[in-house]
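Below is one such record:
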Amino acid sequence: MEFQNGKSIFLQIADTITDKVVSGEFPAGEKIPSVRELASEMGVNPNTIMRTYSELQAMDIIENQRGIGYFVNKDAQKIILESKKQEFFSKVLPDFLRHAAMLGITAGELKKHIETLK
């Protein structure tokens, strides 16, 4: 995995895991890779993965079954989608609309282009 500047590595890994949950690659109730397995796969320190898993636990995306490993929470997909929608509406959409206004793009033009993407 290639990491980007400007965002903590553990958060980038958390984004990768949440994307896998939403896509179904990590289904609800299923075990996810151990800390050591994922650290090796990602080429990072196991402490980074522990921080990632702690963050995902705090968000109720994963749960730790002591002695067995980490599992995807049954409501993880719903939690992730709601969180990403809130982020879209609070950060992405306002920035998008500001850029559109700066370029003089009208609502009608936006609607026309959105319909061509369907």
Notes: Strands lie at 62-65, 69-72. Helices lie at 9-23, 35-42, 46-58, 76-102, 107-117. The CA atoms of residues 78 and 104 lie 36 Å apart. The mean pLDDT is 95.
